[in-house]
């Protein structure tokens, strides 16, 4: 199944690829992207973010010689991206890599969180000596249904874990884009909002697509900004007071405009010192 949508803007088309023909037809379509021009965008589901997709394209000489020859510029949804993750996810990535000597895949984090939710439900079982196995299973199921609010959520590698009334996990869907043969975070993401009651100028933001409404949910448009520090020198180290002086370059990588006037180091010895 291949669908061609109406133009998003003049001269630009987006091709949506279904999962049914993924490994055969989509690979063929991507192989021909060099001939269709930059005005064609390929967009697909989370199957495109799997390692099998990259391996499949790796069968062709051009992709092996130049990673991304066919895949670069392809957008894909994915269940999770470590680049957008919290501190717990970074710790998971570090421990997993050290133990197994390879980087964890998205499914590694998802399976870990699934086990964590089940363990939480089991730990909250009421102690009943005469309870049957069937009754204990029902208690586990009931405990899972109690994870219906953000305040009750289990903190997981992929974020806060809780469910809606249909039993679906409430999460934003990260968008990736292929670059040099691997999926990285797209420059713009949409993050689900728990409420819009306290948002100023809601109508204006919706008209400007800063906030969108889809499937009964509101999502805000967020821009991804990469930040890093290149140290030139670290001096005047005081181990007793845990302070030091540093000379460094602070860099940001982003798309569009960026306001760098309000950069704040929360652990500076003297926050009033101009940077």
UniProtKB/TrEMBL annotation:
It comes from the Bacteria. Coiled coil: none annotated. This is Branched chain amino acid ABC transporter (Substrate-binding protein).
């Amino acid at each position: 199944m291949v669908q061609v949508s109406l133009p998003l803007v003049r001269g630009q088309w987006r091709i949506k690829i279904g999962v049914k023909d993924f490994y055969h037809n989509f690979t063929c379509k991507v192989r021909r992207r060099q001939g269709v021009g930059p005005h064609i965008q390929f967009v697909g589901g989370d199957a495109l973010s799997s390692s099998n997709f990259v391996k499949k394209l790796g069968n062709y000489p051009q992709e092996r010689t130049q990673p991304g020859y066919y895949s670069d510029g392809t957008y894909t949804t994915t269940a999770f991206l470590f680049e957008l993750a919290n501190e717990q996810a970074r710790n998971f990535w570090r421990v997993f890599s050290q133990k197994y000597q390879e980087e964890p895949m998205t499914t590694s984090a998802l399976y870990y969180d699934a086990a964590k939710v089940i363990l939480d439900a089991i730990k909250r079982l009421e102690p009943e000596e005469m309870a049957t196995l069937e009754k204990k299973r029902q208690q586990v199921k009931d405990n899972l249904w109690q994870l219906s609010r953000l305040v009750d959520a289990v903190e997981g590698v992929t974020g806060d874990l809780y469910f809606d009334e249909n039993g679906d996990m409430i999460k934003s869907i990260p968008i990736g884009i292929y670059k040099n043969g691997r999926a990285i975070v797209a420059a713009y993401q949409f993050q689900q909002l728990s409420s819009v009651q306290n948002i100023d100028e809601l109508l204006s933001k919706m008209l400007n697509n800063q906030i969108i409404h889809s499937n009964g949910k509101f999502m805000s448009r967020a821009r991804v900004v990469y930040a890093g520090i290149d140290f030139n020198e670290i001096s005047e180290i005081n181990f007793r007071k845990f302070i030091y002086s540093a000379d460094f370059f602070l860099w940001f990588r982003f798309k569009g405009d960026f306001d760098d006037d309000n950069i704040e180091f929360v652990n500076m010895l003297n926050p009033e010192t101009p940077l």
